[in-house]
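Supplementary Text 2. Reproducibility record for the structural model of the 230-residue chain.

All settings were left at their defaults, and a single model was retained for analysis rather than an ensemble. We include the record here because the model underlies the residue-level annotations in Supplementary Table 4.
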Amino acid sequence: MTDATVIDVIDAKGKKSGSVDLPSEIFDVQTNVPLIHQVVVAQLAAARQGTHKVKTRGEVRGGGRKPYKQKGTGRARQGSTRAPQFAGGGVVHGPVPRDYSQRTPKKMKAAALRGALSDRARAQRVHVVSSFVTDGTPSTATAVAVLAGVASSRHVLVVLERQDELSWKSLRNVPTVHLIYPDQLNTYDVLVSDDVVFTSGAYDAFVAGPAQGRGATAVASSTEVEEEQK
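Retained model, structure tokens:
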């Protein structure tokens, strides 16, 4: 990657307010397509609830007596109307509750994410904005205008800080925008989005990596607390 190593930072008025360097170890690595495919398949599999269930002939209610006598009818002998060959009977080898999750090492997930981000960066589809609002109140119109100035695609992934509630409230109802926090950034969301837009704070937090050590704690924003209490 040559001219995409340094990208401009756009402010809420659509003007350049600075620039940031894209680390080559994150945004300029070789894209391993089979690895990305494996990680995405595992991620989608883990999202499945696995609560599907059908009843066998022993679980269907009724059918406790023979539908007709054993001999003399000329028909095949039957012991219950809940056998699989009858309407309303049980199901043979049907789905049962199970866990679809697959074991995926953290290093594989990180490598797949770096490959997906590198692909977007090489296509000039990684952007950084300083903020989405100009004052202290949420504004969807202002945030959408800022977003349109950096990314004209239909599907946009916006990475925000957990404390940036103004931007979250401004963009959460936009159908073409998917909001995510830096520590939630994943391969699938990058691939299904045409552009990836970071705020300056979210970009710094992502490049710095997750907090390490005993002092690392997760802090929920007030928006998350309100959604959890509903």
